[in-house]
Amino acid sequence: MIRPAEPADVPAILKLIRELADYEHLLDQCIATEALLTKNLFGPERAAEILVAIRDNAIVGYAIFFKTFSTFLARPGIYLEDIYVQPQHRGKGIGKGMLREIARIAVSRDYGRVEWSVLDWNAPSIAFYKSLGAFPLEEWTMFRLTGDSLKQFGSV
Questions:
Q1: Which secondary structure element, helix H or strand E, spans residue 54, and what is its range?
Q2: 154: exposed, middle or buried (C-beta count within 10 Å: 0-12, 13-18, 19+)?
């Protein structure tokens, strides 16, 4: 079952976020807390939406996404920040189901696209996304401003 997350799901979601960070070799950068997730996913200024995947009465996956805008399409879109399914539950259609639900949301809202990033070494995910009809934007390079650099640049 795939459904929108509820505030009571936050502890399970945080556990999965930490699993994903560990898989991506980024656990040292994962500073998410239950309080931050609750505030930013369920508070008055909700920053993103989240779906959870339930199997055997447990949350085994999640997808976090938010609204973007394409100037070329002159329409909103969805950016998929994270999609994660625990390894023991992969290959059962859960990830595909969550992506399909996000695509349905985009279509129902008349959005122009769904996009996301994937680590270039993550061959299984890349093959999976290509099997769905998604394609890489190989001519684009993502940039990020964060931490002290963001604070310093944004304080001038």
A1: strand 49-55
A2: exposed
Catalytic residues: 129
pLDDT in tens, 38-70: 999 999 999 999 999 999 999 999 999 999 999
CA distances from 81 to 62, 148, 151, 154 (A): 11, 22, 22, 23
Task: List the domain range (segments joined by +) for residue 19.
Answer: 2-154
Give me the residue label for tokens 């945080």: 14
Counted domains in the chain: 1
Q: What is the pTM of this model?
A: 0.91
| CATH assignment at residue 30 | 3.40.630.30
